[in-house]
Amino acid sequence: MAEQTAAMALREAAGRLRGAGIGTATLDARLLLLEALGVSHARLIADPGRPLNAEQARRFDEMVARRLAGEPVTRIIGRTVFCGRAFHVTPAVLDPRPETETLVAAALAAAEAMGGGQLRLVEAGVGCGAVIVSLLAELPAARGIGVDLSSAALRVAGQNARAHGVDGRLSLARGDWLACIAPGVDMVVANPPYIASGEIARLMPEVRDHDPALALDGGADGLAAYRTLAGQAARLLRRGGMALFEVGAGQAAAVAGLLRGAGLGRVRVMDDVAGIERVVAATR
Questions:
Q1: Which helix (H) or strand (E) element contains residue 106?
Q2: CATH of 6-77, one of 3.40.50.1000, 3.40.718.10, 1.10.8.10, 1.10.10.10
Q3: The model's pTM
Q4: 81, 115 in Cβ contact below 8 A?
Q5: Sheet holding 143-148: strands in order across?
Q6: Strands 120-124 and 185-190
Q7: Architecture of domain 80-283
Q8: What is the pLDDT along the chain (284 residues), one digit of tens a residue?
Q9: Nearest alpha carbon to residue 176 among 223, 95, 232, 120
Q10: Beta strands in 113-246 (DSSP E)
Q11: Burial 145-165 (b: 16+ CB within 10 A, else e)
């Protein structure tokens, strides 16, 4: 029997994934093969005829089987890319989505409008830390606090902060949203759970079965977290400080109303790259 080369393994796996209706079959197969081989994309391109040894073939087949079972590639390899940086992810944290980069871009623009400098940032529901770590990496004089109810999530956030060299400027705290934070904050950011409880069962299996329920379930109407965060942000922000929240499709008007009701003003909404209202911002 002829040795299986990287090119052969890639073609076969992509075909299996495509046959299962996975739209990103070739990309997924390539990412899994790179992980199994432990090489870069450039190395694979340069040497597609390299043979797989028995252990590499076993690992690759196991990962492809997991993908066929509906597990996302990021969960299989344990990392994702967000705002151009690699982040470690585990079953304890939400897999950050590309649309959440809109929240980071909006927060960076707000920081610039504030003059940058030694800003104090807080993220509610820090998860893997992708948002606040990305912000601190771009704002070298800023300091941040990340809060999460999950101790396991806080450990992942700490790991990512160290990997990106911002751990000296990021404190992590376990708490119920922002109840543990003292006033005087320049910016509050959050991507809270916003899926209505009754919609969870209808989510795609890659989301429903692999993201933690704590990071998805937004209560009966998807707005439970915002009701708490709006009031907390109003209490914590200094005058001129800003709250920026990611929202689900169709939720911007309701969240804007909650922020106004909490006493915040200059409410505005920003779209993501798909033209969906994705971030609601307000100023104290």
A1: helix 101-113
A2: 1.10.8.10
A3: 0.92
A4: no
A5: 170-174, 143-148, 120-124, 185-190, 237-246, 277-283, 265-271
A6: parallel
A7: 3-Layer(aba) Sandwich (3.40)
A8: 457 999 999 999 999 999 999 999 999 999 999 999 999 999 999 999 999 999 999 999 999 999 999 999 999 999 999 999 999 999 999 999 999 999 999 999 999 999 988 999 999 999 999 999 999 999 999 999 999 999 999 999 999 999 999 999 999 999 999 999 999 999 999 999 999 999 999 999 889 999 999 999 999 999 999 999 999 999 999 999 999 999 999 999 999 999 999 999 999 999 999 999 999 999 99
A9: 232
A10: 120-124, 143-148, 170-174, 185-190, 237-246
A11: bbbbebeebbebbbbbbebbe
* Residue ranges of domains in the chain: 6-77, 80-283
For residue 182, give both structure tokens. 């003292």
String of DSSP letters for 60-104: HHHHHHHHHTT--HHHHHTEEEETTEEEE--TTS----GGGHHHH
Q: What is the DSSP letter of 211?
A: S
Residues facing residue 246 across a β-bridge: 279
